[in-house]
Amino acid sequence: MSIKMNDIDNTKLEEAMQAYMEEPDQEKLIKLVYAIQETKLFVPAMEVQKKGGFQPYVIKNAQGDMYMPAFTSMKKFPQNQKYQGMLKIQYKQCVSMLLDHPTLVQGIALNPFSDNLMLKSQMLELSRKVEQGAKDAPKAYSVKTDDFRMVVRYNVEFHKIPEKLFAEKTAFIHSLTEEVLCEMYKEPYIEVGQEKQYPYTNDSFEMMELNIRDDLSMIQVIAPSAYLYQTNCRELYIVWNPLTDQVGYYAVEKGLYTEEVKFHLSVVREDGSKEKLEEAPSDGNVMNRIMELFGGA
After folding, report:
1. From CA 93, how far away is CA 88, in angstroms rounded?
2. Residue-wise pLDDT tens digits, 164-214
3. Pick from 94, 112, 111: which is nearest to 103 by CA?
4. pLDDT tens digits, 107-162
5. Which of 67, 134, 72 is nearest to 104 (CA)?
6. Mean pLDDT of 244-272
7. Which of 127, 156, 154, 157 is nearest to 24 (CA)?
8. φ and ψ of 250, to 5 deg
């Protein structure tokens, strides 16, 4: 299609979108929120003769939910798609359209024919809090959404637990119980004043400690099976050498919906870096594989 207006350089936003879609953790979510704040978007619009202006188009997904389509650049427009008009407006104006004038529209569909990243109303509300400079804005994502539960679990399983492990080592290991784990998962809910929405109890966690050799011990944690989303962990493994205090952290992580691999064996290293190592072995072989990996660390 031909649009007689200058294109928009949204490179940083598109990079943040791609990073979040590939690995939707809390850190990447917050980077996306900040990257989109001061951007402009192309919004397809149709003429409204009675009002003498234009209003945005609306599209529906397979479930019948309605979204306002918006594009980050001209190259994201589908070929041969024609619109009556095109608005070039700031993202925060899009947010105002949807939040200040409630309709049946659920949010914004960014680049619906390619990336198709859905920014639901909770995301728009979070953006507004960031724009207003709220100190707790990064924690304000609604706990009533699957996205929040997914992000919270990811943050606990791949940041909070390994950070404490590598900082405190055997002191943390010896203090670890089902109750301690349950409290760690609960903290984000408490921080946003939604403790009653927390879905787990101490019984949701199972721990088993194995003293395998004089120089090798392991704790297996079976994480809650409820609300186990992509990038969340089915099992956590803490390994250590009692003779040297060397520690390791491994996890059986649920694959992305776009991947054929159902579960990955992942590692978090002492520098905080995370890596998907391989497809997770069958249940009976996970511990043996982790012992091999830790022994070769």
Report:
1. 10
2. 999 999 999 999 999 999 999 999 888 777 788 899 999 999 999 999 999
3. 94
4. 999 998 888 898 988 788 888 877 765 544 455 444 446 777 888 898 899 999 99
5. 67
6. 91
7. 154
8. -130, 160
Q: Which two tokens stand for residue 161?
A: 């637990």
Query: What secondary structure, in 3-state letters, does the chain show?
Result: CCCCCCCCCCHHHHHHHHHHHHCCCHHHHHHHHHHHCCCEEEEEEEEECCCCEEEECCEECCCCCEEEEEECCHHHCCCCCCCCEEEEEEHHHHHHHHHCCCCCEEEEEECCCCCCEEEEHHHHHHHHHHHCCCCCHHHCCCCCCHHHHHHHHHHHHHHHHHHHHHHHCHHHHHHCCHHHHHHHHHHHHHHCCCHHHCCCCHHHCEEEEEEEECCEEEEEEECCCCCCCCCCEEEEEEEEECCCCEEEEEEEEECCCCCCCCEEEEEECCCCCEEEEEECCCHHHHHHHHHHHHHCC
* Residue that has been written with the tokens 């978090």 in this structure: 268
Residue type at position 56: P
Q: How far apart are CA 19 and CA 22, in angstroms?
A: 5
Check if the beta carbon of residue 107 is closer than 8 Å to that of residue 124.
yes
Of 203, 198, 180, give the one whose Cα is nearest residue 188.
198
Q: Which residues contact 238 (CB under 8 A, 6 or more apart)?
A: 165, 173, 176, 218, 219, 221, 247, 248, 249
Strand partners, 254: 263
